[in-house]
Amino acid sequence: MSTIALYYALHYTLYVWLLPLGGKFASRFGLERSLSVAMPLFVVYFVALATIPFVPNVFWVSWILLAVFKIFYWPAAHAEISKFGEKKNMGTELSWMYAITKGVGVLGPLVGGFIAAIYGFSVLFVLAAGMALLATFPLLRTKERYQVKKFTYGSVWAVICSKTHRRMRWMMMGWGENLIDTVYWPIFMFIILGGTTKLGLVASANALIMTVMAFFIGEISDRFSRRQVMRVHLPFLILSHLFKPLAGGSVRLMLTDTFSKMSFIGVRLPMWYKLYSQGRSVGPLKYAVAFEMILAMAKAATAWILVVVFMMTLPYTGFVIAFVMAAVMAVMYAAL
Q1: Does CATH place domain 2-335 in 3.40.630.30?
Q2: How confident is the model over 62-103, as pLDDT tens digits?
Q3: Which residue in 134, 149, 177, 205 has the most C-beta neighbors within 10 A?
Q4: pTM score, two decimals?
């Protein structure tokens, strides 16, 4: 477990330093061009993962590939949504985006779990690489209209350090919680369930619930205060992390994951709504790089702490500490 934490600690530390380069590329060549460059890199990343069983040392190269992919993808993706999203219906648009991605995700974990169980993770990663490559073609078929804009490293830090954006700063520091939720919670579930097929079934069922919830949360985010919507769901997200060490059986694990995913949507959609709306007034790309840098710093710090935690404790104790850490960090979302 400490090796996994070290992997992400190195990855996010590098990601922090490389992010402004991704912003410079997108400002010079356009958002869609940046996304077009990102997807082939994502393919290379999955191919690298597929070779790990045969060449184990590739594991220590893959985190670099992931960082390079992200600097081209995430700043451009966030800026695209912030720039072109309809302000009055941002919640509805985000709910549709979640519904499409999570709707596809209903079958993804189920099929992925089956493939991994029958054919192994190498085949699964190769298939994922092929799907990522197909996603590149629509971007290449369209011609983006953009203007070259000046983008400096100092301008990003000006946003990060500004008193105007202190709420954003505190909120994004809570994203260390997301690292624990997306990395260590699935591993914990895999250990409890004992196989990829069962894990895929649970993930698919909860992806369906998230799809339905996304529509509901997106609609109310357009009609009510995003801060109020988020703060209603936040206590449940915090509680879900505290319940996770107690999920010792299949039924309890399923219920805990469902509880976690429902509260997750209630927190995330209003949060992105707020960030994308603010980004439009500051500068979509500059603001996207700024909050991605804080997010990466939070995840890097969390990962380095977990390296020490899992080195010094038994695995279950490490999981308990990690989930308690996630609950504490989630409190920072209240800064919205």
Answers
A1: no
A2: 899 999 999 999 999 888 888 877 666 676 677 667 666 655
A3: 177
A4: 0.84
